[in-house]
């Protein structure tokens, strides 16, 4: 399996390490041609305005859209914002593919970063320890979206819409690799279908 990590800005190295230790070949994507031959793509956390601007500058927006319409694509944190269809009043380049409404920096200054143990039935019984850093949340999800995890107040922090996966937190920053394995399973299944 050959998986890309969008390497314009943010926590791409951490994703790369996790994916490699789970058995994938990883390619850093900075230009449209780097997407060739990839079976899946991770869009890391960082700063979504910067990632969007750089993606635009390097002519990546359309190629990324085409890629993510067919191949498993996972956005974490800033990557979740970049994948979303609706980010409210914010004006910044996004892919606009996933049917979720996302609020950037949803937790404000007081709890700008925090950690929480989430129940994520698809990953098994053991709670997933999630690290949130100036995280977004999804406040709405369309009918075709499966909510994988939410906070006690109902805010959505992990979701899947067919080949699109989004997490508001950073699974690449903990020892638990279940989310990376879950994504690689999506990639494998998609490859089998193709
Ligand atoms: N607050 C960042 C943004 O709006 C996301 C933070 C992150 O990716 N850790 O893009």
Topology of this protein?
Blueprint lengths: L1 E5 L5 H10 L3 E5 L10 E4 L4 H10 L3 H10 L2 E4 L1 H6 E3 L11 E6 L9 E6 L9 E6 L3 E5 L4 E5 L5 E6 L2 E4 L10 H16 L1
Parallel strand pairs: 1-2, 1-3, 3-4, 4-12, 5-6
Antiparallel strand pairs: 6-9, 7-8, 10-11, 11-12
Would you kindly provide a written description of the structure presented here, covering whatever features stand out?
The chain is of the alpha/beta class. The protein has one domain (about 1-194): 3-Layer(aba) Sandwich (Rossmann fold), CATH 3.40.50. It has five helices and twelve strands. The protein has helices at about 10-20, 50-55, 60-70, 80-85, 180-194, and strands at about 1-5, 25-30, 40-45, 75, 85, 100-105, 115-120, 130-135, 135-140, 145-150, 155-160, 165. The strands form three sheets. Strands 2-1-3-4-12-11-10 form a seven-stranded mixed beta sheet. The model has no long low-confidence stretch (mean pLDDT about 95). The site of glutamine has 11 residues, from helix 4.
The proportion of strand residues reads 25-35%
CATH topology: Rossmann fold
Contiguous low-pLDDT stretches (5 residues minimum) are none
Characterize the biggest β-sheet: 7 strands, mixed
CATH architecture field: 3-Layer(aba) Sandwich
List all distinct small molecules, including ions and cofactors, that are bound in this structure: glutamine
- Derived from helix and strand composition plus strand pairing, the structural class reads alpha/beta
> What general outline do the C-alpha atoms trace?
globular
Domain count: the total is 1
Spatial strand arrangement across the major sheet: 2-1-3-4-12-11-10
SSE string: EHEEHHEHEEEEEEEEH
User: What is the CATH H-level superfamily?
Assistant: Class I glutamine amidotransferase (GATase) domain
| Distance between the ends | 14 Å
Integer-rounded radius of gyration: 15 Å
State the CATH class. Alpha Beta
How many β-strands, per DSSP?
Answer: 12
Average pLDDT confidence is 96
Number of helices: 5
Q: What helical percentage do the residues reach?
A: 25-40%
């Amino acid at each position: 399996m050959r998986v890309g990590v969008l390497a314009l800005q943010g926590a791409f190295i951490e994703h790369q390490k996790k994916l490699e230790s789970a058995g994938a070949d990883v390619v850093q994507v900075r230009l449209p041609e780097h997407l060739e031959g990839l079976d899946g793509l991770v869009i890391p956390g960082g700063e979504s305005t910067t990632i969007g601007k750089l993606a635009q500058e390097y002519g990546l927006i359309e190629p990324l859209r085409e890629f993510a319409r067919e191949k498993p694509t996972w956005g974490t944190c800033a990557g979740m914002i970049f994948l979303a269809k609706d980010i409210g009043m914010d004006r910044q380049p996004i892919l606009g593919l996933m049917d979720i409404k996302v609020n950037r920096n949803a937790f404000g200054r007081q709890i700008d970063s925090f950690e929480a143990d989430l129940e994520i039935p698809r990953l098994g019984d053991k709670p997933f320890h999630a690290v949130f850093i100036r995280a977004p949340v999804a406040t709405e999800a369309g009918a075709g979206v499966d909510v994988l995890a939410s906070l006690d107040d109902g805010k959505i922090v992990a979701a899947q819409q067919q080949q699109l996966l989004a997490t508001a937190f950073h699974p690449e920053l903990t020892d638990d690799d279940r989310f990376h394995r879950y994504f690689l399973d999506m990639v494998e299944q998609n490859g089998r279908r193709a």
